[in-house]
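ugh ok fine here u go
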Amino acid sequence: MPSRAPILITGGAGYIGSHTYVALLEAGFLPVILDNFSRCKPGVLTRLQAITGQPVVCYGGNVSDVVLVQELLRQHKFGAVIHMAGFKSVGESVAHPLSYVENNIGGMTALLRAMETSSCRTLVFSSSATVYGDPPAAPITEDFPRSHTNPYGMTKLACEDLLSAMRAAAPAWRIGVLRYFNPVGAHASGLIGEDPTGTPNNLMPFVAQVAAGQRAYLSVHGVDYDTPDGTGVRDYIHVQDLAQAHVAAVKALLEGEESFTVNVGTGQGHSVLEVTKAFERASGQAIPYRLAPRRPGDVAQYCADCGLAQKLLGWRAKHSLADMCADTWRWQRDNPNGYDA
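structure:
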């Protein structure tokens, strides 16, 4: 499959999708976005055109619309699909589990139905480290037992199992499962980044808003975990490194690599307080915080062993925590109102 292959990105106007769009185009692919803009803003498309210098091909619609996806597959003859049109908040999934089942599992089912009617059987799936539940040790390898501690993790685990069943039923499928750890950061241009609606669900954008004076303080949820400073430890990965992982996965599958499941992280864990201090250094701003109870569904720590991704895909993360904080701060500072600026 030539590098100019068209690639469909479901959820491609979102935080991770937009960075992956840029990385694919820079690698010589022809990315096409499908997004219903329920969790992102159309203003990202103007920014993508500014970064790439090319018009953005984007369709407004839902991945659950089988007829629409079938028509896109017929029209563009995609070499592969990257599926990242999933809801992603642990807390929200605890409060609204049915919405997560309908969107995450229902969307995957509809996409596979549409792909079955086309010649495209190559898929990269945005999974999550939450499929490891509350892991017994760190770093986590891909053969760790899977479980879940929240509905979000349950939907990702169910989608992984469905993809395994599809592969067993029809070996022509080539499927790459990327188990994300914690994406943060922004494009080096400062033109695209994470633009959460309402109160951020993730640490880094919340910290950035505190540094910018948009919020009074950070609530540190849980200070009695079995970690060096008592706060939760996560493996944070720069979104541009994550975007490159998608490019590597697509290339591997189109060049004949068999289906695979790999962790996508840095292999280095950082606590909430470590991230807060690093962001203070990057921004030059004080970040006040208050201690708060643990949140339902959270676990003490996640840290990836990414050796398999390097072996199979030739990929590894390159950005440091300092890079992640600096790029997030640039995005926040230059775009205080996100894409509404």
